[in-house]
Amino acid sequence: MKKIIRKIFILLPVLLCIVLAGALYMTKLYHNYRPLSYRPAVCRETSAPLDNPFRGFHHMYGFTLSEDAPEDTVKRARQYIDSGSLPLMLVQINLKNYADTDLSGNALEQLDGILREIQDSKRQVILRFLYDWDGKALETEPGSIEQIMRHMDQVGSVVNRYADAVFLLQSTFTGNCGEMTQTKFGSHENNRLLMSHLALATDPSIYLAVRTPSHLRGVTQTRNPVSAETAHDGSLGSRLGLFNDGMLGSVYDLGTYDDTPNADTLAPEDKGTREEELAFQDRICQFVPNGGEAVIDNPYSDLENALPDLAKMHITYLNCDHDAAVLNKWKKTIYHGDDCFDGVSGYEYVAAHLGYRYLVTASGFSYDALDKNSGIFTLTIKNTGFAPSYRLFNSFLSLENLETGLQLLLPLDLDNRTVGGGCQTDFSFPLTLDGLPEGAYQVSFFLSDPYTGQLIQFANENTDPAGRTILGTLTVIPPSREGLLSLLRERLQNR
Predict the structure, then answer these.
(1) Residues 245, 255 contacting (CB under 8 angstroms)
(2) Among 96, 197, 244, 404, which residue carries the largest CB count within 10 Å?
(3) Considering only CA atoms, which of 245, 89, 274, 243 is closest in space to residue 172?
(4) Domain carrying residue 18
(5) pLDDT (tens digit per residue) in 167-202
(6) Does residue 5 sit in helix, strand or coil?
(7) The pLDDT of residue 18
(8) Does 323 sit behind a cis peptide bond, omega within 30 degrees of 0 on the bond before it?
(9) Domain limit, last residue, from 353, 370, 395
(10) Nearest to 90 by CA among 175, 176, 174, 166
C-alpha cells in the first residue's frame, strides 16, 4: 500500500503538468478556433462620372509676369479658381517681359501668389512657361540659352514650394505658344540641355513633358526611356512625358508623326509613322503622363477612331475648350458598347475614361484551417481608364461591425500606380484577426490622396455612405463545443 501511495505522489506532479498543459492547449485552441466566413460583394461598374484628382478635362488660363502689383495677379487667379468647376487646371505663364533679364522679385511674387491660390484651393495644375502666345517666339525669346536656364532656376525655386499641387511642367519654355517649334533653340542638343536643366531645377516628384515622341527620345537619347523597373525613381526618363496639342488632327497629328518608318534607323530622335509612335506611347505612357488638345474635325477625331488612339496614348488630361468642333462632335455622337456606358455621349465616355478609373472586380480571404486568426486577403483592381494614376495614394482596408459600429482601419502596402490603363492587377495582404470580437463586419477598401485629402472614387456600384468601396462581409462566429472537438481531432490526425 505504501508503495502505491509513493507512486501516486511521484506521478501526481507529472499528471498535474499533463492536465495543465492540456488545459493551456485547449484554451489556446479555443481562442484560435473561431469559425469565419467571408462573402464577397457583387462587383458591378457604374457609368457615373468620378471626381478624382490629377486627371480629366481642364480649362486653360494665362498670366504674363510683369511689374504690376502682385495683389492684382493673385485676385485674378482667385477669380479663375472660383469660376471653374474642374479641379485640374492648365496655367500658362508668359515670361516675355524678362526675355533679356532675370525675373524680378515682383514677378516671382506674382508667380508665388498664383500657385499659392491654386494650392490653397486644393486644385491641381499643369504649368507651361513660355515667351510667346502669338506665333512670334523668334522675336520674344531670350537671346541666349543661358538666360532661359536662369529663368528655369528662378521659377523652379517657387514651383518647388508647391510641388504637391503641380502635376507637371510642359515644354522647354521655347517655341511658338511654348510648343518647341519655330525657335532658335529647337535642336535636339538644345532641348536635351534645357530639359535636363529643368529637371535639376524642379522637385523630382513633378513630371515634365515635351511636345512629341521625337523630342522625348532626343532628350533621353534612347528608345527605351522608362520601364516598370525605373518608373518613379526620380530620373529624367521616369519623369518625362508628352503633351500633344495636335492630337487626332490628321494622320500625322499636325507634325507629331512622320510618314517614314524609323524602326531600322539608328537615331532615337527620328520621327516614326503614326502606328510606330502610337506603339511607343502605348509602352512608355503607362509610366509617364500624356495629354493635350484634340483638334480639327476630321476622320481621325471621329469617336470610333479616336477612342482606340486615346487608349493607346494613355491620355490623362484634355483641354475642354479647344477644339470646340471636335468636342461638340463627341457630344453629338452616341457611344455603343457592351458595357455600362452603352448609350451615353462620346464626350461623356471620354470624360469618364481620361486618366485612371478604378474598379474592384474581386476580393477574398483565405486562412489557415488550424489557425483562423490570420490569413491572406486578396483584392483585384481593374483600371478601365485610358491611363494609370501617376500619383501614389494611401490605401486602407476597413472592417466595421454591423451591430456595434466598431471600426478597424488597416493601412495597406499597395502601389496604385502599378494598375495600368486598361489593365487589371491582383494584390494580396496578410491579415491578422486576433482579438477581433465576434460578429459580422462590413469589409471596405479605399484610397485617399495625401494632397487633397479626398477619397478616390471607384467605379463600383457598391459604395458605403463615406464613399468607400464595399468588398464583402466577414463573419466571426463564437466557438462551439462540436467545432472545437472537430478541430482537436483534425490536429491529432495531422500529427
Answers:
(1) no
(2) 244
(3) 243
(4) 2-32+481-494
(5) 999 999 999 999 999 999 999 999 999 999 999 999
(6) helix
(7) 55
(8) yes
(9) 353
(10) 166
